[in-house]
Specification:
Layout: H1 21-31, H2 35-45, H3 50-69, H4 71-81, H5 84-105, H6 116-141, H7 149-177, H8 192-215, H9 228-252, H10 257-287, H11 291-303
């Protein structure tokens, strides 16, 4: 099944270009006098078209801009809050957000000759960072409502690190050892080994989220946080991974619609997962009322004798 058979209206699916087409298009534009504007247009279009690239770049750039706009206030909150867990996740969120923005902006690398190694390396770092956030959150949730402090953070990161290390090791073996193009989606023919691996990957995540979702209807419900936001997060991630699993199965069986659906899930994941994580797990911490600062000011004023007249 060739991607050229996909209707043009479904423009978020990557085109059926071979790896050299992008660089050839850029060279042709430059030779015709298009200059930098033509090169920039080809870079933005990437391998999947302008709308696909913009659907990835715009949400990622806006979220990084959002984090930057609140950076000063967030650092103040972290300093006064002294929560090791929040500090660790905030730093990880910044790192992964920058990696994800780079991954979204450099989509043209996957169909540019000579950039395959750089694209695979960037994709490995980005997906590993996002997967680490996912797994560490799950590991943290399964520790119960009382999980806090350095001990819980160490235990969470240890479990997550082991799982992610196995995942990235397998990906390195398949990409650099067996030459399986896990992160390159610009070939005309679908690679059954590649999509088989993605099916297993999405199946595992779907099963994990499904099991956690089922815990809300069992006696182990008390082990999970009581906030409805956690439940909503699990529903969203279960639905997204189930949809991605279905898309990978379609592509693996040569169904052209699967490419469109898979790229839709890619946009949802890379464009909106990090904002979702921030809203559900970090926003309350950073946006809470500054009562602790007011209490500090009140205590200092009281110690200085400003309120002694009230007792006279």
């Amino acid at each position: 099944m060739r991607r050229s058979q996909i209707p043009l209206s479904l423009s978020i699916a990557p085109s059926a270009a071979v790896p050299g087409n992008l660089s050839e298009a850029v060279a042709a534009s430059l030779s015709d006098g298009g200059g930098r504007s033509a090169a920039a247009a080809a870079w933005i279009a990437g391998c999947g078209g302008v709308w696909y690239s913009l659907s990835l770049i715009v949400p990622s750039a806006l979220f990084v801009g959002f984090l930057a706009s609140l950076a000063r206030r967030s650092f103040s909150k972290l300093y006064h809050g002294k929560s090791y867990i929040m500090i660790a996740y905030y730093c990880l969120l910044w790192l992964v957000s920058l990696l994800n923005l780079s991954w979204c902006a450099l989509q043209a690398w996957q169909c540019t000759p000579g950039k395959e190694f750089g694209w695979n390396l960037l994709s490995l770092c980005t997906t590993t960072g996002m997967l680490f956030l996912e797994i560490s959150l799950i590991a943290f949730l399964l520790q119960g409502n009382d999980a806090s402090g350095v001990e819980a953070l160490t235990r969470t990161f240890l479990v997550s690190g082991v799982i992610v290390a196995v995942d990235i090791l397998l990906k390195i073996i398949y990409i650099f050892g067996f030459g399986v193009p896990l992160f390159i989606d610009n070939s005309e023919e679908s690679n059954r080994v590649k999509w088989g691996l993605w099916i297993v990957h999405k199946l595992v995540l779907t099963v994990v989220y499904g099991l956690i979702l089922s815990m809300y209807h069992t006696k182990w419900r008390e082990k999970l946080p009581a906030r409805p936001a956690f439940y909503q997060y699990i529903i969203v991630m279960f639905s997204l991974n189930a949809l991605a699993l279905f898309a990978c199965m379609l592509v693996g069986n040569g169904v052209g619609f699967g490419f469109w659906l898979y790229n839709l899930t890619t946009i949802c994941y890379h464009g909106f997962y990090l904002p979702l994580l921030y809203i559900i797990f970090l926003a309350d911490f950073f946006q809470e009322d500054d009562l602790h600062l007011e209490n500090v000011y009140y205590s200092e004023m009281k110690d200085a004798g400003f309120f002694d007249a009230d007792w006279d």
